[in-house]
Amino acid sequence: MAILQMYPTEAKGNRARMLTTLAAMISGIVLGKSCQLPVIARKSPDQAKADSRIKRYSRWIQNERIDYERYYLPFVKELLVNLANIRELVFVIDGSEVGHHCITLMVSLIYGQRALPITWLVVKGCKGHLSERLHLDLLSQLQAILPENCQAIFLGDGEFDGIDLQAALQALGLRYVCRTAKNTQLYEEGLPFSFGDLLVGPGEQISIPNVWFTREGYGPVTVIAWWERGYRQPIFLVTNIELAGEACHWYKKRFQIETFFSDEKSRGFYLHKSHLSNPERLSILMIAACLAYLWVVYLGLVALRKDWVKVIHRSDRCDWSLFRLGLALLDHFLNESLPIPVSFSLVSNCVR
């Protein structure tokens, strides 16, 4: 069973049963394209009655012994370690509604053209800015799993420009680029100004180093007013990266996390329609949903590397995402009764 491939010793007893249930839930999520337990139960391969499966899956997400460290970290730890040996790790933080009146705050790893879920927390609330304390809690979770001496970059939108978060990132030796507001109070050599004073025009990029950020005077940092040609308005960034062009290059990658949330939600597994309202249970359900996502991305890589694209899509070009390719390849294998590869390890297919 592929779910066992990241464990150094053979799982036995209760651990083996928990992993078997996890594998069945992953199958049900992908085949049912849903995170609702009744749908997962109907689509998962099991001889037990659907009602029995629903109860088993419900017990699984309520089980206090099911946690991120034992049931998800083994699958991403290898990826982080191996990628850290060949390049900088690029992380994106963002939040999105999941379940019923809950929000997940997620750190994802940019991998190729995709954002892979790395660590998260789930809290009660609706879409909007979460407290900086939660941002720092999630950063602590990321810090605990970062490979030793790795080089990493941290990207965030305007919700994540808090000075405590910036200070924590700086203390960890992480480079960062975060969006900020046009009216943010800035200081250069003691003189106050804001981004609105820079009068940036279309196609222009204005950067100012050694700036003190907000009235609290955090810094020094570099601030950037960037109006990329073709966009209706500029964006404003704060960073500890000295070169503005490099900071903008990295920030462009932030938008890739939007594809992860749409894949987990409206284009894929409808995580936001799970009908769960308990943050702890949602956080555990996300273990299965995120592993399902990794499996589908793996299938997308198989489609590319094994020349299946011309069979499931078209022969002259490919304009589908890895996620969409993975789902299409799975449909093809099922329709043709072909063996289905299952793996949650993307290491052998590393994309720079």
Query: Uncertain runs with pLDDT below 50, 5 residues or more?
Result: none
Alpha carbon gyration radius:
22 Å
Mean pLDDT: 91
CATH fold name of the largest domain, please? Transposase Inhibitor Protein From Tn5, Chain A, domain 1
Q: How many β-strands, per DSSP?
A: 10
Instruction: Using the coordinates above, name the CATH class of the largest domain.
Output: Alpha Beta
The portion of residues assigned to helices is 40-55%
CATH architecture of the largest domain: Alpha-Beta Complex
Q: Give the structural class.
A: alpha+beta
The H-and-E topology, N to C, reads as HHHHHEEEHEHEEEEEEHHHHH
Strand order of the largest sheet: 3-2-1-4-5-10-9-8-6-7
Distance between the termini: 29 Å
CATH superfamily of the largest domain: Transposase Inhibitor Protein From Tn5, Chain A, domain 1
Query: In this structure, how is the largest beta sheet organized?
Result: 10 strands, mixed
Domain count: the total is 2
| Total helical segments | 12
